[in-house]
Amino acid sequence: MKETNIKITASPHVRSADSTVQIMWSVVYSLIPVIACSIYYFGPSAILVLLAAVAGCLLTERWFGSNPGSVSDGSAMITGLLLGLSLPPGFPLWMAFIGGFFGMAFGKIIFGGLGQNIFNPALVGRAFLQAAFPVAITTWPAKSANWFSLQGDNLALPFMSPTVDAPTSATPLGNLKFGDDPVITPLADLLLGTTGGSLGETSAVFILLGGLYLAYRGHLNWHIPLSIFTSTFVVSGLFYALGV
Question: Most buried in the list 9, 19, 44, 54, measured by CB within 10 Å?
Answer without folding.
Answer: 54
